[in-house]
C-alpha cells in the first residue's frame, strides 16, 4: 500500500487503517504527498484530531509549519530560535507559519510569531493567495483577526478570485467579525471577480440581516 492510501484514510477518518499502516511503515510518517502536505498536516486540514495526536506523538522531528498548525508552541519557539530566517518562509504547500496558525486558530502561536515580526500581510505563494487575515476570517477566528489587524494586516487585500476578508466573514455570517473589519476600514463595496459583494455573500448563505447591514 502506498502513502496515497494513507492520506485517503486520514481524510476519510479511517483512523484504524491509517494507524496500522504507520505502525507497520514508520518511515512514511514523515513523507509528503504530491502537494507537499505531510500526514500530520493532512490530519490537521481534515480536522482529524485523533490522527493529529497519533502522528505528533510519533514524529521524530516536526517542521515549523506542522508545529504552527497544531499549536505546538515550544517547537515553534525552538525552531525559530535555531533558524530565525524561517519566520516568513513558505511551507511546501505554499503557506507561512503565521498563515497556518491563523487558519487553525492557534492564538498563542500567532501572538508569538507576530511578536517576532512575522509579516501579517504576506500571502501564500500558491494559487489561493491567502494572507493570514483571510485564513483567520475563513475559519471565524475573531481574536486572531484582531491581532493581525493590530499588527498591520491589510483588511482589503484580495485573495484568489478577488475574495476579501470581509467576503469570508459575511459568507460565514460572523457579525462580530464583519463589524471588526468594517471598523478597521474594510470596503463593503468590494467585489469578487464574479462581481459579488460581501452583502451578496451573506444573502446567498441565508443571512439577510447581515446582508442588509453590508449594503451601501
| Radius of gyration over all CA atoms, rounded | 18 Å
- In sequence order, what are the helices and strands, one letter per element? HHHHHHHHHHHHHH
Largest sheet: number of strands, sense, barrel closure: none
Give a count of the beta strands, DSSP E runs of length 2 or more: 0
What is the mean predicted local confidence, pLDDT? 95
The portion of residues assigned to helices is 40-55%
Q: Helix segment count?
A: 14
Q: Which spans have pLDDT < 50 for at least 5 consecutive residues? A: none
Class based on secondary structure composition and strand pairing: mainly alpha
What gross morphology would you assign?
globular
Distance between the termini: 56 Å
Oligomer: single chain
How does this structure look, described?
It is globular, with a radius of gyration of 18 Å. Helix content is 53%, strand content 0%. The protein has a domain at 1-60. The chain has helices at residues 3-12, 15-24, 39-45, 49-56, 64-70, 73-82, 97-103, 107-115, 132-138, 142-150, 165-171, 175-183, 198-204, 208-214. By secondary structure, the protein is mostly helical. It starts with a helix and ends with a helix. Helix 7 packs parallel to helix 9 (132-138) and helix 13 (198-204) packs antiparallel against helix 14. The model has no long low-confidence stretch (mean pLDDT 95). The protein is built from 14 helices and no strands. It comes from Shiella aurantiaca. Keywords: ANK repeat, Repeat. Residues 193-216 are annotated as: Disordered. InterPro entries: Ankyrin_rpt (IPR002110), Ankyrin_rpt-contain_sf (IPR036770). This is Ankyrin repeat domain-containing protein.
Amino acid at each position: 500500500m502506498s502513502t496515497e492510501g494513507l492520506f485517503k484514510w486520514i481524510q476519510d477518518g479511517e483512523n484504524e487503517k491509517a494507524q496500522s499502516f504507520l505502525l507497520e511503515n514508520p518511515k512514511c510518517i514523515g513523507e509528503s504527498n504530491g502537494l507537499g502536505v505531510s500526514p500530520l498536516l493532512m490530519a490537521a486540514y481534515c480536522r482529524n484530531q485523533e490522527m493529529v495526536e497519533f502522528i505528533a506523538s510519533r514524529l521524530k522531528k516536526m517542521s515549523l509549519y506542522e508545529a504552527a498548525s497544531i499549536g505546538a508552541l515550544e517547537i515553534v519557539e525552538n525552531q525559530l530560535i535555531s533558524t530565525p530566517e524561517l519566520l516568513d518562509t513558505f511551507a511546501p504547500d505554499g503557506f507561512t507559519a503565521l498563515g497556518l496558525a491563523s487558519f487553525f486558530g492557534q492564538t498563542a502561536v500567532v501572538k508569538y510569531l507576530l511578536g517576532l515580526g512575522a509579516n501579517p500581510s504576506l500571502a501564500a505563494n500558491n494559487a489561493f493567495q491567502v494572507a493570514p487575515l483571510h485564513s483567520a476570517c475563513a475559519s471565524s477566528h475573531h481574536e486572531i483577526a484582531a491581532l493581525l489587524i493590530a499588527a498591520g494586516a491589510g483588511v482589503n487585500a484580495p485573495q484568489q478570485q478577488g475574495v476579501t476578508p470581509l467576503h469570508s466573514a459575511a459568507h460565514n455570517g460572523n457579525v462580530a467579525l464583519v463589524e471588526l473589519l468594517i471598523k478597521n476600514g474594510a470596503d463593503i463595496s468590494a467585489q469578487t471577480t464574479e462581481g459579488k459583494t460581501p452583502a451578496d455573500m451573506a444573502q446567498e448563505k441565508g443571512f439577510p440581516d447581515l446582508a442588509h447591514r453590508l449594503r451601501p
